[in-house]
Specification:
- With 487 residues, this protein is an alpha/beta fold.
- The protein folds into 2 domains: 332 residues, 3-Layer(aba) Sandwich (Alkaline Phosphatase, subunit A), CATH 3.40.720.10; 99 residues, 2-Layer Sandwich (Arylsulfatase, C-terminal domain), CATH 3.30.1120.
- The chain contains 14 helices and 17 strands.
- Helix 7 packs parallel to helix 8.
- The longest helix is centred in the middle third of the chain and has 25 residues.
- It binds 2-acetamido-2-deoxy-beta-D-glucopyranose (4 copies).
């Protein structure tokens, strides 16, 4: 459907000069946050503020990152391109120099008259964002980095020995910390300050919280006595971030921004809390690639009618829970459409040379505007795609099999998540051309999510599932373009 027809369907807010008012965007990214949240039915989570946001938002229950590592995932969703297109699987290249001069999400908004601001961790710092958070392209002013981030790995954790150490688990007394603060507290203050400033133009405020990424350093009052310590600390760090998000939204609501600001909350990838014997990301398992994705659109997702009329298939708990399969590459085209900031993004063509502005995702706006759309013209995905590289067949310290450099990559695991299954194929990877060699398969994994949501039982070798494996393999090789279906 053309964008003209789409516009006719929408109620466009118009200001006194008769021009459409572009919506502001508050984009919250929480580092390494799996859906350990009350609004995702996690009974161990204490996250009242994110739950409250979820109540007036669409909650995407099946959202997936394209790679379970910070820099590749962030560069992927901030350009709406997949790791094989930005050619980044590690931390060590900058796409503008190695893949193409691709326009980023914040850059698009900046070019369309927005004031764009980066607070905390949005781009992964270092080479992958040219040591500058992609300045001068993406942001209207110098990105803010909390000064206390310099003590990230300092020996400031008090364990049982009484000596300050560099502990993985690190509940602290904030007033005894160097700088008497913590990075995320400083990011919150900077974000609140930004919201208090008067400005004419619309804004995109991106706030990247560092926790619950390890080390699990957080104010000790968030720790209360529950289960095992790492899990408990991960949840405590998540409660801490939830509290900060509550304060940020309170600030937003205390200004006139409330009615005209889209709020989006996500994580860059998941985290394994002991599942499959792992305490990390670095894999294609559901726990590593599944992320929270919550999108609030003022006047749409918070009006009582929406909740009544928005029929999202298969949702049993809350009417604005979506079970659609979505990917982080979808965020960029979605925010463009929801904000009415400018022209909609075109899908990237299947060619070697890529335009600087296009998307390898789809806009989720039709899913969100479903009430007004009567469920038509929705591009639904039959599957989400993720990938993870390895330097060899077995775990090694050198090279680090969890974080291989591009030059060390020998295998790539390509993973497909449908509504019912996860299918992963490990193949030789041709690193010079950033492509798999599908003829050289070294391993397969198949998990049936209808009976095995934790992915404990690999069914790939079962003879009776041979046809299914064959079908999923063909779907994986065909790529993401062939897993889109327009209803
Ligand atoms: C109306 O919107 C236009 C374009 O965004 C802006 O330049 C103008 O200042 C706005 N006027 C008022 C009264 O807000
Ligand atoms: C990359 O794009 C930016 C604007 O998007 C432009 O200013 C810059 O000149 C481009 N660089 C190259 C090498 O084309
Ligand atoms: C990356 O940063 C360097 C050093 O500041 C600069 O010379 C170079 O132009 C930047 N690359 C791009 C593509 O902007
Ligand atoms: C914002 O929304 C509230 C109700 O949700 C309404 O009372 C108020 O008038 C709105 N303000 C603007 C500026 O539209």
């Amino acid at each position: 459907m053309s964008s003209v027809v789409r516009c006719l369907l929408f109620l466009v807010i118009v200001n006194s000069t008769g021009k459409a008012v572009k919506k502001n965007i508050l984009f919250i990214i929480v580092d390494d946050l799996r859906p350990a949240l009350g609004c995702y039915n996690d009974v161990n989570a204490h996250t009242p503020h994110i739950n409250a946001l979820a109540k007036k938002s669409v909650v995407f229950k099946h959202a997936f990152a394209q790679q379970a590592l910070c820099a590749p995932s962030r560069n992927s969703f901030l350009t709406s391109r997949r790791p094989d297109s930005i050619r980044l699987y590690d931390f060590y290249s900058y796409w503008r120099e190695t893949a193409g001069n691709f326009t980023t999400l914040p850059q698009y908004f900046k070019q369309n008259g927005y004031h764009t601001m980066s607070i905390g961790k949005i781009f992964h710092p270092g080479i992958s964002s040219n040591y500058s958070d992609d300045q001068p392209y993406s942001w209207s002013e110098e990105p803010f980095h909390p000064p206390t981030e310099q003590y990230r790995d300092s020996p400031v954790c008090h364990g049982t020995s009484g000596q300050p150490g560099r502990n993985l688990i690190c509940p602290v007394s904030v007033e005894l910390q160097p700088g008497k603060s913590l990075p995320d507290l400083q990011s919150l203050e900077a974000a609140k300050k930004f919201l208090r400033e008067k400005r004419e133009e619309p804004f995109l405020l991106a706030v990247g919280f560092h926790k619950p990424h390890i080390p699990l350093k957080f104010p000790r009052e968030y720790l209360d006595e529950t289960s095992k310590l790492i899990r408990q600390s991960y949840y405590a760090a998540t409660s801490y971030i939830d509290d900060l998000i509550g304060q940020l939204l309170k600030e937003l609501n205390s200004h006139n921004w409330k009615n005209n600001t889209i709020i989006i909350l996500t994580g860059d990838h998941g985290w394994s809390l002991g599942e499959h014997g792992e305490w990390s990301k670095y894999s294609n398992f559901e726990v590593s690639v599944r992320v929270p994705l919550i999108i609030h659109v003022p006047g749409i997702t918070d009006v009582p009618d929406y909740v009544k009329t928005n029929e999202v298939p298969n949702s049993s708990v809350h009417p604005s829970i979506s079970n659609a399969i979505v990917e982080l590459v979808d965020i960029f085209p979605t925010l463009v459409e929801l904000s009415e900031a400018g022209d909609l993004l075109q899908q990237c063509p299947d060619t070697e040379r890529q335009p600087t502005l296009c998307t390898e995702g789809v806009s989720l706006a039709p899913l969100i505007y479903k009430a007004g759309w009567k469920g038509k013209f929705t591009t639904r995905k039959k599957a989400a795609f993720s990938q993870y590289p390895r330097p060899g067949m077995y775990p090694t310290l050198k090279p680090n099999s969890d974080k291989p450099h591009l030059s060390q990559i020998e295998y790539m695991g390509y993973s497909l998540r449908t509504h019912t299954h996860r299918y992963t194929e490990w193949v030789y990877f041709q690193k010079q051309i950033f492509q798999p060699d599908w003829t050289k398969v070294v391993a397969r994994e198949l998990y049936d999510h209808t009976i095995d949501p934790l992915e404990d039982l690999n069914l790939a070798d079962r003879p009776q599932l041979h046809d299914l494996v064959h079908m999923l393999s063909a779907q994986l090789h065909a790529g993401w373009r062939h897993s889109l279906a327009t209803e």
